[in-house]
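User: I'm putting together notes for a lab meeting next week and I want to include a structural view of one of the chains we've been expressing. I don't have a solved structure, so I'd like a prediction I can at least talk through. The sequence is below, exactly as it appears in our construct file.
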Amino acid sequence: MRVRQLVSGSTAAASVLALFAAAILPREGAAQTVSAFQPADYQRMRSVAQAEFSPDAKLVAYTVVRYDRPGRPWPQLWVLDVASGKSTRIGGENDVAESPVWSPDGRWIAYDGAAEGKRGLAVVHPDGSGATFLTEAHGTNSPLPGTGAEATWSPDSKQIAFISATPGPETADATGDPIVITRYLYKPDAGEGLTRFNDNRRLHIFTVDVATKAVRQITKGNNYEHSIDWSPRGEEIVFASDQSPETDQFFNYDLFALKVSDGSVRRLTATENAEYDPKFSPDGKMIAFRATKRGLTDRETTMEDTHVWVMNADGSNRHELAAVDNRQGAPVWSPDGTQIAFEAMQVGEQWHAYTVSVEGGDPRPIAAIAPGAE
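Assistant: Thanks for the context. Below is the predicted structure for the 374-residue chain, given as structure tokens.
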């Protein structure tokens, strides 16, 4: 389980943990016959992932990953009522849905999946009503390690910014006959595994109006923009991108801020190391993110543990926040902006969750998360 939101009280936390227990424990009253694990049992397994609290912490949107049909595992979207413990599935029995993102007013959940007979970026009310297809969103198989959020709501809950891919200048030649390869990164992402060559599509930032479904492409060019978060003031979207001259040979994510009204971009970091997962503070005055320290020369791996950092929204006063000497996950702000939660990997691939004051100090452990939990 990944840390998503800080909430007060133990009821909400216990409810989320119950989701994971329900995925692996037999139902009450069921026969407790113990037998050896059989290959067919794999298809009946379920795993719970991507738990996201609603803004008022009364509901949790989460995905259940299933393995009971040919091909890759497939996700379904559910919503848990924390008080009653009742869960409601979003969509039909065979509908695919994942990556839930709550609107700030709590009225909608944006997700990637099926709606109105189509597949793409969609929205739905928490009770499962009003499922609406908004637009297609395309990905890429290009090697892009450590990418973050692909969708983020405007603070007024009227628009969604999302990431989608468009053809790059090499796409036509690389898919023609004969195939012409001109890029150093001509192979797809190792985890993608379905195609032989890089599709050469570039990731860019788009917005869609929820009411009218009008789509606007904001960024263009030959770079990859991703890992987005809309500022609480509504003026900018922070994102990560490698805009160095030789992006195929070297790996160097930096952080940038995009002005939504005119598409202008300002650079927030210019380091030899890599920054990931930017997230505005609730008041919009600061940005938390993950980063490394040493200069990087290779896309295969950062060869260094990421740690949580913070800086002012203009890029000033950048400093490492949490002194935990292990790989740290993406930062999450508390609602009042005084604390940041994150995960840190421990021995045996176990993750521990921590909180730390924005002013600094020793991180406080809040939970241990079993290996393999998402």
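A couple of points you could mention at the meeting. The longest strand covers residues 159-167. The chain has two domains: 1-28+39-129, 137-320.

User: Perfect, that's what I needed.
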